[in-house]
Write a structure and sequence with these properties.
This protein is mainly β. The chain has two helices and 30 strands. Among the domains are: 40 residues, no CATH class; 65 residues, no CATH class; 139 residues, no CATH class. A hairpin with a 5-residue loop joins strand 13 and strand 14.
Amino acid sequence: MYSAALLLSFVASAYAACDNHCSGHGTCNTDDVCDCYDNWGVGLSHDSGDCSERTCPYEIAWVDTPDLNGNFHKYLECSGRGICQRDSGECACFDGYEGKGCQRSTCPNDCSGHGTCEYIEDLAYGNVWSDYSATGLYEYPATFPYRDWDREKERTCVCDPHFGGADCSKRMCPFGNDILDARDDQSISLKRQIQRIHFYFPATQASNIDLQTFALSFKTKMGETYTTVPIVFDYVSTANAGDFANDIQLALLNLPNRVIDGVTVSVAQVTTSPPEYTIDVTFTGDAVQGNQNLLIVHTYQCLDGCTPKITGLPVETRVESGLNHGGVTQTQSADYNSFECGRRGKCDYDTGLCACFSGYTGENCNTLHALF
């Protein structure tokens, strides 16, 4: 009994030798130094002390001092962009940073309520087919396989339609041609943009083409995207070419808000075995002056909960001799240009309306009503 009491006394005295009994957040070692539990320590070094203070989350540093081997962006408390609150273990991030370890940037003005704050690796780069994923799902924008140190740190605003600027606070104004814009050679007929949709069908799918449906999407310069009703692929012979072209033309002209106010369509069969078709779309309206974003083709079956519901087309995407089979290309560039307020006015970014210069009028200032 005496030996046991002596042993307990020794343990108690050893525990008492550690500062503040390790504050209840650590173990006292035989050298009278606290071995702190996870997330406890003291001071900036957190070596030990009395384990009375919390440590804050460590994340990849935004900026730090390289080591001898040139390595940098190591882990730092609060990512080096905040002050640790020792009583709570939470980071008080500096302006422009947020997150449990200040590990990500904020977006300016929270995108002003007119956009979303996106990570750099989630930013889609596709506005046209050739910029989209090569996996065949070309109606969905692709992203780069971004793997740099800031992939889950840097963010920026992706603005809603009709809004622009770094913080999406500016309303966009209509675009149009400069009414005084002169073409290089006036003796040549006016050129309008022509986009070509190229459909390539494997020979094994030749019998599965007729009466299947697809759709087209058009993205305006204001950032709006509109999708047509289902279009029936009914080109079974040359005699059907005119009706098929009319169906495509009507589908584009019937998009909301007359975003396409003038367009002509022609269809041709390139080969019969395997079947290949081209659809040429010429933009002729005043609302689509200048080169437009390329059309987006929807050919994948989508019948359950989709708008529009399409049966899809068994197309095959290929790249042969520089020709993009299964996609959309520009075959003729427009002489017309497309400028904010027709380059003849100033945009009021509060209202999204053009303040036309003297002598000009119209939504996009491309109507000349006086000569000086």
